[in-house]
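Hi everyone,

Forwarding the result from last night's run.
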Amino acid sequence: MPYSNPKGYGFVPPEFRGGFKDLWQASNALELTSHPYEGTLWDGDGKPMHFEGVFRAEYITSLAVRFLRQKHRKPFLLVVSQLEPHEQNDVQAFLPPKGYREHYQNPIAPEDLRFFPGDWQAQLPGYYGNIKSIDESVGTLLKTLAEENLEDETIVMFISDHGCHFRTRNRRHKLSPHGSSIHIPLVLQGPGLNQSRMVRDLVSMVDVMPTLLDILRIDKPHSVRGQSFLALINNHSDAREKWRDDIFIQISETMVARALRTDEWTYCVVAPNGNGRSDPGSTRYREYQMYSFAADPHQLLNLAGRDDPINFVHYIGDRQLPEVAAYLRDLFARISSHPQSRLAELLPDQWKLVEQDGAGNKVEG
């Protein structure tokens, strides 16, 4: 295979494991060290673990099952990180288990894809087949927990890192502020959590660790910016009143951009001259995208820079669009500000920023 050299994306040295000091069986970039039916992981000592003839997700699941069937005398945290349904990078396709793609021919396409070109017409069958393989993996793990009498005392969280818009929004499958890119599954079960409740409030990945700590009655470190959403799960009367109604999003690689997701709006700004692969951020951003969820749930019409009458069918509300944009700019500035950063204010009518220097004087750029 063309990515057989493990240096840099294979074995992960201990200092880069995020504090995991016990069991380690992984690859730094699994999509570059494996294919669906063969590949290599590395154990904690750097010894290669080669698999062949078994589907990748099934092999990783078997490693987790082996761990769960051991005798455990103390609590454990097990992270099972599957590559599927990520594309296979070197062939730019979603490769499910044999026969699964055929099962999902002519699938139903989400409405936020149908309007746009892209590669969803060809890729959805493979993508859905991969999701089926993950469903089976989760089912195997839950069955194993039950068989080992661990089901009633184990917290299980299912989560993904990003969605997929099938190149309908840019040349990649992600890296955009749209729901198809940033909306991910988050499912919890365990002691006190099995309430069959859907929480519709906005939560972020930074909230995952504080929530797990809260469930375990462990205080989160002061440096952690996320919040526990356990009170939302428990449906406490005042939880939603205290919960934030916006999420901050960083976009890199394809561009240097920042975005907000609120109950009503998606708002994105971009650094016009930013390099998404090398620049961590910018003090200069330009309004790029703005979508109304009430009128446009599939985010088909970009309202950034528009000044349409409020009775137009593509917008529901009683505020002029420039007024909405001003509100979102102010919210963005407050959320994204850092005590050591200069204040950046975006002026939509001139498409430029007004920055403040150290003395508080405005410097136009």
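Residues 1-6, 338-345, 349-365 have pLDDT under 50 and may be disordered.

Cheers,
N.
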